[in-house]
Amino acid sequence: MPPRPRSTPSTLVRTGYKAEDVAPALPDGKTPDAIKIEPWGANNLQPQDVLRVLYDSGTAETCTERLTQFINGRGFANPATARTMANPEQTMNQLLAEASGYAAAGFGVAYIARYTFGGTDPEVYVAPVDCLRKEKEGGLGRYVINHKLAVGKMPAGENRVYLPYDPLATAEEISDEVIEAAASEAGYWGHLHWPFGRKVGRNLYPVPTWWSAKESVESDAELPKYELKQLRNGFFPDAVFTLVGKKYAPIEDSNWTPAEGQTEKDRPFIPSPDLTNVIQTITALKGASTQSSVFVNVVETEDEKPQLDFIDKGPNSKGLTDMTTRIEGRVYRRLGVPPVLCGVAEPGLLGSNQQIVNSIKLFGLTVNPRRAHCTEPLQQFFPLLDFTVLPLNPVEYIDPAVATKMTDDELRAIQDLPPLEKPKDSEAERTIKALNGLSPLVATKVLEEMTSEEIRGLISLGPKTKPVPKPRAK
Q: In sequence order, what are the residues at sequence separation of 6 or more whose Cβ sits closer than 8 angstroms to the Cβ of residue 147?
């Protein structure tokens, strides 16, 4: 999150203007230019809803963290670029690390470029996208950042207005915009550039691709809560408690007074004292915080003897295990992250080796466009720098138990490397393969026409040597 945008001492030295000239303070509670914004979602809080669902799910957060790591890679390949200061507090590498998190969440990356009056050498920050809104159509195309949106509020006095960035604008045109904004009531807070991969029907704000399956992500968040309840409640079983006898039956409320239009038929029933005592005892046994249910059944026949029937949770537990595997698989697919890169080694989730290779290759189609959201704007701000990112090696994230079952060519395919060159067959090996492809009668005929030296050569034996005669004794 960028600090309060004021000109730094280094900026003031270059411009010669006071900080108040660049971003004048606003009177308390006054809204700059009364800017109207386009709501993001029905309640203008869709990004907050997205982040809540995302961080409630352990599987989804793991996927997002893995996406962030692969988008960021090992930082910029060029050491000079990596060390260049993007702003007084961050290097380019640090800026990339922050931007990768927003790209992984599916929001694109919004950059704030604060120019001097010369229109060059901006200080660049990552904008908090969840607190960012666009000006309503018909305005000047500006943006508003209000940090109170993080907690669901948007007081007008907290609005900060940013100019839209034009990649084709010259330094002189940017300088004119800075001067004009600095002289206005809103002040100059910076230019904002926000590429997020616009789609049909989603050209105002980004919506993560997994949001259409948010129920699966929410289900993944609920499963651990259910298990926690079972642990806290000591696995108290669901049960049906049968009470036999009229003394447990509800009784008419003698203190009830009929209202207008009511008759004696409307008189309510209240629990009997005996039934109340039983319910209090059951509640004490299972704990006040339990989510387990006990059904109390009252009948008037049979002996007055309570009957407790336990419900077997075995089938339910197995169903819960199967459901967990199924839901986690959906979350992995919707977020586009192969389970094998998140430490999963269960065969049911991974599939065959070829499926693993294909899923990791498809993972690149998710990572590369989001990495471009991070680097392409920086290339526009600083055209002389090289913003090539060193990618991570996916093989390093595969569980060793899985990697050992994969061939060398499969592991190379994951890294976009060609298969290893196989040694070429020798002439003898080619001859043997040709003979094996013939019928036995034809192969025998061919062998009969070969010399003994040729046949020995097929099995890597040298030519037959003639025995040296022993010298005769004199």
A: 1, 128, 131, 158
